[in-house]
Design brief:
By secondary structure, this protein is of the alpha+beta class. It is built from two helices and eight strands; from the N terminus they run E-E-E-H-E-E-E-E-H-E.
Length: 135
């Protein structure tokens, strides 16, 4: 990792394979960053995905979507066709929507996500981003 290039200060990455945010600090990869970037992840039910993505697009943000299976207290019931009955699965399908924003926008983005959830439950996680490098 020590051989990675330095991230240029105020370098805005615009190509299709670039990062969807501005890198504002010149740091060597692997060292503690003062970039002020935050990673916002929200664990939601699949039926709320379109509303959350629309809220992020309204703020001109891009997102990555992960399909996950949660093995908690909730169980998902699936009915099979032709009267075979219902089956209770040991997991529940969920979606994780992830975006990276400047630290000053965290409150606006989290409020937009909460508004899109419309009373539905979810888990919102905000983590600091130490390094960001295009590879």
């Amino acid at each position: 990792m020590e051989n990675l290039n330095y991230i240029s200060k105020y370098c805005y990455l615009m190509s299709k394979k670039s990062l969807p945010f501005e890198v504002t600090d010149s740091e060597k990869t692997g060292k503690k960053s003062r970039s002020g970037l935050k990673r916002i992840s929200v664990l939601i039910k699949p039926e709320k995905l379109d509303a959350v993505i629309a809220a992020l697009r309204g703020l001109h943000l891009e997102a990555t979507i992960y399909d996950v299976k949660s093995a908690g207290r909730e169980k998902e019931k699936v009915t099979s066709g032709r009267g075979m009955g219902t089956v209770e699965l040991s997991y529940v399908s969920r979606k994780i929507v992830v975006t990276i924003v400047d630290a000053s926008r965290v409150d606006d983005v989290s409020d937009a996500i909460r508004g899109a959830m419309a009373g539905s439950k979810g888990v919102l996680i905000v983590l600091p981003v130490d390094d960001a490098a295009q590879i």
